[in-house]
Amino acid sequence: MNTANVKDAVKEKYAQAALRAVSGGSSCCGAAPASKDHCDPITSNLYDVTEAGEIPQQALLASLGCGNPTALAKLSPGEIVLDLGSGGGIDVLLSAKRVGPAGKAYGLDMTDEMLSLARENQRKAGIENAEFLKGEIENVPLPDNTVDVVISNCVINLSADKDAVLREAYRVLKRGGRFAVSDIVVRGEMPAEIRRSIELWASCVAGALEESEYRAKLAAAGFEAIEIEPTRIYQAEDARELLRSTGLGVDTVAPLVDGKFMSAFVRAKKPAAPCCGPNCCGE
Question: Which of 64, 93, 148, 177 has its CA 20 to 30 A from that of 199?
Fold first, then answer.
């Protein structure tokens, strides 16, 4: 699949999602306005009432994630966090609150509309220890060894060059830093019809890695202590909702994905600094 085509499709979908949020609408994985009766199971009910009350409503409306990495990453005061594909800023703003004034949260996004929305949400929230950067997750505009934690929410699967994303995450992490992302992961083979659909690349599914492949790519980038923890496993009826507007044969494809897609929390660590003296390893 052409990398430029994928990137353009994702940009267009997320720009539309940002504009819907500004006008008071919501989104389901960037594909369609949400309603009481139509919202895909991937993006719904990820933040509790307390968290939702901590950030502007438009940040919640623009959320296109598949998990809640800020809750699962166990952020500590004083840490520096980077959110890959920060969208409307919900996870950046929540992270900034978790790490406190001594810490900082960066958000990285390639979509002007999302960056504008995120900065407005930051202004409304009155949060000073956050910064939104324009750029691509395959080429992070931060120096080496900058952040303590890399988070992301249903974005890495959208990249057509995941090896580059993981290498960049490893590069910007400090020694001993943590990779803690929510993402869509596949167990087993995926139907070819889904892989070929640009629409689903921009809707969080078609670019998803198979579980063993995700582990292998993290290891190749240099990470250790790799864990993949399922948070939601999707059945055929869930896929039926997601496939509704793609033009694919829903009745044929939906049963083939039954139980094979999951939202997962993906953890890994950058190795700590090597021992550099006779006493540093307890010798």
Answer: 93
Beta bridge mates, 266:
181, 228
Cα–Cα distance for residue pair 182/71, rounded to 1 Å:
11
Q: Identify residue 24 by its one-letter amino acid code.
A: G
Determine the Cα–Cα distance for residues 62 and 14; give it in Å rounded to an integer. 9
191 contact partners, CB below 8 Å, separation of at least 6: 253, 256, 257
pTM as predicted: 0.78
- Rounded CA-CA distance 43/64 in Å is 6
- Residue 199 has a pLDDT of 57
Residue ranges of domains in the chain: 3-269
Out of 3.40.50.150, 3.40.50.1110, 3.30.450.20, 3.90.850.10, select the CATH number for domain 3-269: 3.40.50.150
**Residue 5 bridge partners (DSSP):** none
Alpha-carbon span 236 to 253, nearest angstrom: 9
Q: Provide φ and ψ at 11, rounded to 5°.
A: -55, -45
Strands 224-234 and 261-269 come out as antiparallel
Judged on CB neighbours under 10 Å (0-12, 13-18, 19+), 149 is buried
Give pLDDT < 50 ranges for the chain: 25-39, 41-45, 62, 282-283
Whole-number Å distance between alpha carbons of 14 and 233: 24
Best CA proximity match to 117, nearest among 86, 143, 144: 86
